[in-house]
Automatic annotation (TrEMBL):
BP-aspect Gene Ontology terms: methylation
Transmembrane segments: 12-30
Keywords from the named record: Membrane, Methyltransferase, Transferase, Transmembrane, Transmembrane helix
Name of the protein described by the UniProt record: Methyltransferase type 11
UniProt xrefs under InterPro entries: DUF7870, Methyltransf_11, SAM-dependent_MTases_sf
Region feature (Disordered): 380-406
Length: 508
């Protein structure tokens, strides 16, 4: 018996209806998955809100009618509907809403997001009502992000009420000082700057603060990041000082060795963490002091030095290029992949020629001294047979003329210069400065001068060879008459440096 036509037609309609329902459900699941479990696409959802009633502030969702998610009228679903992108937007929305609640951000603020790759932070600001927001990055991502260099922003001075730098971008900058100067330049006085960073210790935190000298620290907190690239974030809020309050310059120190150069507690803690000084005078100093270098706790091995704008090594009494510059500093000092400017201070003319062919080092062919003046020096065959000889010159050292009876090879006129004043004119408080000093007893003149002028405050780490009437290698029980100071006086000098907050190590 053949089925009736109405029954056959009914079956066809039922199957067609079920097919349509399945397709609708499939599309619904697809859109909800892409949109982060939401249904607000006006061209699909049956009960989507009218455009006028689709709120932006506080929803944490993307409005289909919003102009910022489309280019030439076409929605950018390939980017703005991705779940990862939405997760980042929600993260930044939460951050910015906290800042609004705390009074650091306002919906009327003119805002800038620097080095934002795809503009999640820009979108989040617009979404919570901060409409006048622009992002800038090396590569543009229209319409949220325009192209430009953070190290040379195209905006005028005092243009923005709020500046945001997220995703640890300041940590990745090759010129952090310029990065900091540019974003603070574009920030209005009393405007707010928020930075997300991943600094590792108190030293690097304070180094980062030093980059923003025209701002005051408002608050700091630790928050959880939204992905594995930055699981923990340090959020810092700055407020730019009024123009009348912005001033520069380094802190000065006045006094002598009985005074202390003021340093913050975190630097004093580093000094306390350093290797202990050798208290008892070594019987074989030429062995003991050389071996002690293995115990040295270098500053870069204890802290992160990344936030310094410049790295400088000063070798006072450098001798030849292959001496401490190559054999120790270049090969052993932990530089954290930073490029250091190297200054070699050496008055002995016999070493000057080899520096002419060396790149990356600047020779100062003078004697480090307490003032600018011409000095008389003797270059002698060292009477101490334990000393190494180099071409007949006793260690190649230059020493002040003491007596007519000295075993003198030659007497020469050497130009001395005010070393402390040179330090103050060459480096700044923000720079990372390492100094090695081996000046044949002149350290007892130079160190007090560094304190007197405040130049000592500009040096982060010192390696000091202190010269005294040590036991002679050749003659057991006999002391060298070359120097008048005792080991106890050397120890006092080293202790005074550490007590003043200066990280100093014993050099051999």
């Amino acid at each position: 018996m053949e089925p009736s036509k109405p029954s056959f037609l009914r079956n066809v309609l039922v199957k067609a209806f079920l097919f349509c329902v399945i397709m609708i459900l499939f599309r619904f699941a697809y859109v909800v998955t892409l949109r982060g479990e939401s249904c607000d696409l006006g061209d699909f959802c049956f009960f989507s809100k009218p455009e006028a009633l689709n709120p932006i502030v506080g929803t944490g969702k993307i409005a289909a009618s919003s102009a910022i998610i489309s280019v030439d009228g076409e929605p950018k679903l390939d980017l703005y509907t991705r779940k990862e992108w939405r997760k980042a937007v929600d993260f930044y929305s939460s951050i910015f809403q906290d800042l609004i609640a705390e009074g650091y951000l306002d919906q009327k603020s003119k805002a800038l997001c620097v080095e934002t790759l795809t503009g999640q932070d820009v979108f989040a600001l617009k979404e919570i009502g901060v409409k006048d927001t622009i992002g800038i990055s090396k590569k543009a991502s229209p319409p949220l992000v325009t192209s430009g260099q953070t190290e040379k922003l195209k905006f005028k001075n005092n243009s923005f009420d709020f500046v945001f730098s997220g995703n640890g971008m300041i940590d990745q900058s090759k010129n952090q000082m310029n990065f900091a100067e540019e974003i603070t330049r574009t920030l209005k006085p009393e405007g707010f700057l928020v930075i997300h960073t991943v600094f590792k210790d108190t030293y690097s935190f304070n180094s980062l603060l030093d980059l923003f000298s025209s701002c005051e620290l408002i608050r700091f907190r630790e928050i959880h990041g939204f992905d594995s690239s930055m699981p923990e974030i340090r959020e810092i809020v700055f407020k730019k000082l009024p123009l009348s309050s912005i001033h520069g310059g380094i802190a000065k120190f006045h006094g002598n060795l009985d005074n202390k150069c003021f340093v913050p507690e975190h630097k004093r803690e580093l000094v306390r963490s350093a290797e202990p000084l050798i208290v008892e005078e070594p019987l074989k100093p030429w062995i003991t002091l050389k071996r002690n270098i293995k115990n040295v706790k270098y500053l870069p091995s204890m802290v992160d030095i990344s936030y310094k704008p410049r790295y400088v090594y000063i070798d006072v009494g450098a001798r030849g290029y292959g001496s401490s510059i190559v054999s120790w500093f270049k090969k052993q000092y932990p530089k954290q992949n930073k490029t250091f400017e190297v200054y070699a201070i050496e008055a002995d003319k016999s070493f000057h020629e080899e520096y002419k062919t060396k790149k990356g080092v600047k020779l100062l062919p003078y004697a480090a001294w307490v003032r600018n003046e011409t000095l008389s020096f003797e270059i002698s065959h060292n009477p101490d047979p334990s000393s190494e000889e180099r071409g007949g010159r006793g260690m190649g050292r230059i020493q002040p003329v003491k007596s007519k009876g000295s075993s003198v090879r030659e007497v020469d006129k050497i130009q001395g210069f005010d070393f402390a004043n040179w330090v103050k004119n060459t480096v700044s408080e923000q720079d990372f400065v390492v100094m090695k000093m081996d000046v044949e007893g002149t350290e007892f003149d130079l160190i007090p001068r560094l304190f007197e002028t405040g130049a000592i405050c500009l040096i982060d780490e010192i390696f000091l060879e202190c010269h005294y009437n040590r036991w002679q290698k050749c003659c057991p029980g006999q002391r060298s008459s070359k120097y008048e100071k005792t080991y106890g006086q050397c120890l006092d000098l080293l202790n005074s440096l550490r007590e003043s907050g200066v990280l100093v190590h014993q050099w051999w």
